[in-house]
Amino acid sequence: MKKLSARRIAALGALLAMASVLFVVESLIPPLLPMAPYVKIGLANSVVLFVIIVFGAGDAFVFILLKNLITALFVTPFVLPFNLAGSLCAYLAMAGMYGMLFPRVSLVSVSIAGAVLSNIARTSVAVLIMEAESLYIQLPFVCAFSVLAGIVIGVLSTLLIKYLPERLTKFE
């Protein structure tokens, strides 16, 4: 983590609010896959990927922990294990790929990896909580949806980085 200036903290706070609002709004949308109600496009992940790129992996780790705690308060604490497992796996995939492979791989590829691992983790948590290994049968559908969601989030993140003014993406 870099030095925490007031400007940096304010920017991370505003991004945390944005990611939380996106998550809460998206939770109001009916499930896109009825057999897996925890599967969403994950619009807040475009903000997480933005934080990884602009602020670094350390700040992004704290960011996702806070995002999950805040959104659990607004939605329901029941979603915390699903969201935390998904967020941590997505974070590890995205921060790792971005740190080691970018620009050899695109932000869309980074996002797809995060989306797929996130939904595998969420499905695994559902299996553990419900004690139903048969839930793994939905994994091919969940992963196919994850690829589409990852493309959407990757494109959004690419547009954010490309078109935001530099003064909004430089926090030295």
TrEMBL record:
Alphabetical UniProt keywords: Membrane, Transmembrane, Transmembrane helix
Gene3D superfamilies: 1.10.1760.20
TM spans (from-to): 43-66, 78-101, 107-129, 141-164
Keyword Repeat among record annotations: no
InterPro entries named among the record's database cross-references: Hpre_diP_synt_I, Hpre_diP_synth_I
Keyword Transmembrane helix attributed: yes
Annotated Pfam families: Hpre_diP_synt_I
Protein's name in the database: Gx transporter family protein
Organism: Candidatus Borkfalkia avistercoris
